Amino acid sequence: MKSYLAQLSQKLFADLKSGEDVSLELHSEESDFIRFNHSKVRQNTVIRQHELTIEFHFEQKIYKSTSSLTLQLADDLAVLTKKIQSIRQAVTAIDPNPQYFQMQNNGQSEVYKKSQRPSTIELISIIAAVFNDSDLAGLWCSGPIRRAAINSKGQFQYFENDSFFFDYSLYNGPRAAKGFYSDENWNEVEFKSRAQQTKNTLALLSRVPVKVNPAAYRAYLGPMAVAEIFDMVNVWQGFSRSAFEKGFAPLKKLHLKEKTLTKDLTIAENNLLGLAPHFNSLGEISPEILPVIERGELKNFLVSSATAKEYSLPSNQASPYESMRSYEVKPGNLEQSEILKTLDRGLYLSNLHYLNWSDVQTARITGMTRFACFWVENGEIVGPIQDLRFDDSLFSIFGDNFGSFTRHQEIFTTTATYQKRSTGGCKVPGAIFNSFNFTS
Amino acid sequence: MQLENASAESKKNIDFLKSEFKKYMLEADFVAFKSVREKSRDYTIRNGKPDDFFEFTDEGILIELMYDGHMGYGATCELSAEGIAHAFQKAKHMTEASQKHAMFRFTDAIRPPSKGRYETTRTRKLDSLSTAEIYDFLKKTSLALKTNDKIITAKSDVMLIECTQAYLSSAGAEFIQDFDLIVSSLSATATDGKETQTRTLNGGRGNSVQGGAEFFNLSKALEMCEQISKEAIELLTAPNCPTETCDLVLAPDQMLLQIHESIGHPLELDRILGDERNFAGWSFVQPEDFGQLQYGSPLMNIVFDPTVVNQFATYKFDETGNPAKKKYLIQNGVLKAGLGSLESQARSNISGVANARSSSWNRAPIDRMANINLEDGDLTLPQMLAGIERGVLMTSNKSWSIDDYRRKFQFTCEYGRLIENGKLSTVVKNPNYRGVTVPFWNSLAGVTNTSTVETYGTPFCGKGEPSQVIRVGHASPYAHFKNIEVFGGG
Questions:
Q1: Model ipTM?
Q2: pTM score, whole prediction
């Protein structure tokens, strides 16, 4: 793919006119998706998908155009050349863009990663065998993802990662436990061990259910549940400078120092996790670690070069969307073995579901509990609960009502596959809260 | 195929699809090729200046193969003989291996031999709209939204989609569908330094229709800009929605979301059958509920109708060739049928509809909504309000959350008005409400008449593993619910 791109881009750049600049962003994937229900295959899909986005700069104007690639050089070249001609025509109709910035050569680099694993055909049989005593629903996803950011200034950044994940849940009637496995290389012993842990969790759910009335309780959120909260804030551009300037500002009070969060909370974009390309879609290399919230204070918004230009700010080479590509929430001191004892009485929540804002101005969020969630008394699990809705402010749960983070962190590679596979993920601990508000 | 009106490029693409299909049509128990070519233009103007100008031309083929009753899929954008050969062989090997662990054995009845052609009803095709024409519309509307210095973000956006799908199968299906789709949005964010509020045209991208360039009406859009901007400013000084249990009236642009989340998704048969359990979730609806469950009050009549001219999710066939027809899902409040394709109907023996759809060439079809509409009642809006002593009218969705069984929901709107002694009174900000699906719909106490029905949709209904977004339409009158928990922000 890299040499194909080199040939294609060279020919396209050769035809540019004076004052024109073009950057090319590649997304390419060869994916195996195996969808399971009742521990059997519901749908299998194999995909080859390649897209190239032209970002055309001319006279302070910007126009972006994405096309599918056939990987037939003459055909792709003809389509893209025609596309650039039509863009030249289109930009005559539009005004200069206040976010326009001069394209830069951000260097040349390449990163290749490949996980060792059995073939997908073999893995279908392995998964079916390991879970033949279970009711499983989930998705196997594997294959290479390629990203590149090339431009007419001489930049050529390339990333290729042949990875896998298995995202699943096990069921006993309506009771369910969540499982997830992804690693640098497939390890069948580890896979089976994790499968057994998920089966053990499901067994705990067969205890007599406990009815919990809506109220404020102490709560432990497992790492996946903590990730749900920060994923939501991140995806909705809660850390974005551009969104802040446009009026979407859940962290405004933190920025203005009218509110603070717990000193235990430090969150950073961490590009050393290796879960995403080391460059953004423009080929800019972001800092390896960019603190966003440090010891409870807002340290940095994410600022893209476009936002930097528009608001006369320094850029920190954030992605144009200004969400963290990979992030880490720093761990605390709470040992795994002490979680139930420290919680003492309250809710043990493995997962949350469908989070959204109930009031952006006050950073109030709502969502549901999901999968294995339990009532705990005297430091011991009593039984599973019915799903509960929570509604609370980030300034409350990560403010006065915060307890502690666990020492243990877990890494989750993203499972997002809308339209195409995403890259990125997070490394997060679990957390205990002294009070968490449940409403229904 | 009937291609009299097709462009030379479209004819060339169909000829290629046909010639490639012929090579493989006998290579499995069943083979189908679906091609998708979609051009979308998504342009945004903010505060009268360009914000984002983006277009996407997406093109590829989905190959369907059946071995021993198991359907597998291969997809590629490598539209050459070699690319298709590779995709077919890979799909063949994976499907042969997967069928040993097949969850269900289908018959070829799940892929009817439908033939025909569909085109969006329009007087002027979207491809005739130039960048200059669109830019002019967006710039004028964006500037019209900025009526006051307190408006810090005045945004006008349009997404224009031209999509052609063609389908050929070894069972004899041969059809082509050609869609023009428009999603337009207007948004004004106002601030006074302490408070910030956003008002939009029908909530985000709710203003979604299937139609041609004639749907662009600048004078009407400018009127809307004035109202949106005025309401954004009003919200800055409005009190929060009170916390109480009272009557709730939902405007059609919030009913869009209410219908979508608490009727559409729980009635999807693939959810009920458990396919979505790991991702989007399951459903509180059980197979035995069909024909029995009093889902809502007798005023509740919900139809699946992909035949409504110019509604967002209108088509002639679903993507497996099942002919589209109107069907009551809920009639007089009783659950009658599910949102299930021929595959889900075979698995569940529950009455379904033509709704096997996929987001593009790179995803397998699954059970989706199309147009899901609440039928009108007989009240005028003033008559409905006159019967309410204390309540809140909520307009335009802002935020949404619902559990994985589609029972407990909490939704936030942009703009609320108190209803006191039968009349609209104070404007309130951050109007929220929460409820549980079946009790909520059983509290439906009134529905306004046909003159009040408004038609909306969304281009971004998410579901599936791997995940897909799809376009759905929802039309509704105003609806009155009794004894609902409402609250504000803060």
A1: 0.96
A2: 0.97
